[in-house]
């Protein structure tokens, strides 16, 4: 598909909300650029936090894989696999989702180009202190809080009336269009998965979607600069998302994502053209 153009003239029928006020913190990428060996105390985790005794890498190959094309065709076997994945894991990987490889690869490339820009250019889209849209760092509520070793770029993409297009980067060229094109595809796959969940629950296919008066869809990009002591920092702190669905697109050659399963941490080995999904909250411990 051709990337859809971002509509710069969207009429705001309702004021776009603000979310999660955040204290200002240093730009990690710029800090590393100035001194690659510096790791401030505020980023260092305790030995207890970094303990890996409950780390089970051998379970990585057991993370459920769902064939989206079969799910869309109403395969009862694939619906049963999804049901089991949600009950036992709360996470699964999706293959044959129909999102073109070229689109996903271009999204990664343009994202990398954005974070490669001079900090002065990136700061044109700096996140305000009372919101989460834009370039910066979120969820900092205390001056004593230990920080994550990452910088972020966050947008609300749906409903369109909540978009704040002043935070959608003009550079690199085509990035705004790619954000739009990628978000459209994620929305398509996400809605189909929710419809499948309706069927699993014995409801009409469109019933759960109907309960979502307006789908609030956001896009977050996490950038993890190199660290001289990676064993002492977290790129992103352990957390549970509050959304109905979470989707993670990993770099094909970089491991790092881990999921919580029955009290242990399980690494998610990147698989090309595959995305990791979470539906609702899973209590598997």
Automatic annotation (TrEMBL):
<dbReference type="GO" id="GO:0046872">
    <property type="term" value="F:metal ion binding"/>
</dbReference>
<dbReference type="InterPro" id="IPR005123">
    <property type="entry name" value="Oxoglu/Fe-dep_dioxygenase_dom"/>
</dbReference>
<feature type="domain" description="Fe2OG dioxygenase">
    <location>
        <begin position="211"/>
        <end position="285"/>
    </location>
</feature>
<keyword id="KW-0408">Iron</keyword>
<keyword id="KW-0847">Vitamin C</keyword>
<keyword id="KW-0560">Oxidoreductase</keyword>
<feature type="compositionally biased region" description="Polar residues">
    <location>
        <begin position="1"/>
        <end position="12"/>
    </location>
</feature>
<dbReference type="GO" id="GO:0031418">
    <property type="term" value="F:L-ascorbic acid binding"/>
</dbReference>
<dbReference type="GO" id="GO:0016491">
    <property type="term" value="F:oxidoreductase activity"/>
</dbReference>
<keyword id="KW-0479">Metal-binding</keyword>
<comment type="similarity">
    <text>Belongs to the iron/ascorbate-dependent oxidoreductase family.</text>
</comment>
<feature type="region of interest" description="Disordered">
    <location>
        <begin position="1"/>
        <end position="21"/>
    </location>
</feature>
<dbReference type="InterPro" id="IPR027443">
    <property type="entry name" value="IPNS-like_sf"/>
</dbReference>
<dbReference type="InterPro" id="IPR026992">
    <property type="entry name" value="DIOX_N"/>
</dbReference>
<protein>
    <recommendedName>
        <fullName>Fe2OG dioxygenase domain-containing protein</fullName>
    </recommendedName>
</protein>
<dbReference type="InterPro" id="IPR044861">
    <property type="entry name" value="IPNS-like_FE2OG_OXY"/>
</dbReference>
<dbReference type="Pfam" id="PF14226">
    <property type="entry name" value="DIOX_N"/>
</dbReference>
<dbReference type="Pfam" id="PF03171">
    <property type="entry name" value="2OG-FeII_Oxy"/>
</dbReference>
<dbReference type="InterPro" id="IPR050295">
    <property type="entry name" value="Plant_2OG-oxidoreductases"/>
</dbReference>
């Amino acid at each position: 598909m051709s990337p859809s153009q971002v509509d710069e003239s969207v009429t705001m029928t309702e004021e776009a909300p603000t979310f999660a006020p955040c204290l200002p913190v240093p730009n990690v990428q710029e800090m590393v650029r100035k001194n690659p060996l510096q790791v401030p105390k505020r980023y260092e985790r305790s030995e207890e936090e970094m303990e890996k005794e409950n780390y089970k890498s051998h379970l990585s190959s057991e993370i459920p894989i769902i064939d989206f094309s079969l799910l869309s065709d109403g395969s009862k076997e694939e619906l049963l696999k999804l049901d089991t994945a949600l009950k036992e894991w709360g996470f699964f990987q999706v293959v044959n989702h129909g999102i073109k490889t070229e689109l996903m690869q271009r999204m990664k490339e343009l994202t990398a180009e954005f974070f490669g820009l001079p900090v002065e250019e990136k700061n044109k889209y700096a996140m305000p202190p009372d919101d989460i849209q834009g370039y910066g760092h979120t969820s900092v509520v205390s001056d004593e809080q230990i920080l994550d070793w990452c910088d972020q770029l966050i947008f609300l993409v749906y409903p369109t009336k909540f978009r704040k297009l002043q935070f959608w980067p003009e550079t690199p060229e085509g990035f705004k269009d790619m954000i739009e094109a990628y978000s459209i595809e994620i929305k398509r796959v996400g809605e189909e998965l929710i419809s499948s969940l309706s069927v699993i629950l014995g409801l009409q296919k469109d019933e759960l979607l109907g309960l979502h008066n307006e789908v609030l869809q956001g896009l977050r990009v996490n950038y993890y600069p190199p660290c001289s002591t990676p064993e002492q920092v977290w790129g992103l702190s352990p957390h549970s998302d509050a959304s109905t669905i979470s989707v993670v697109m990993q770099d094909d050659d970089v491991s790092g994502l881990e999921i919580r399963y029955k009290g242990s941490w399980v690494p998610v080995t990147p698989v090309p053209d595959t995305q990791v999904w979470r539906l609702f909250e899973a209590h598997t411990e």
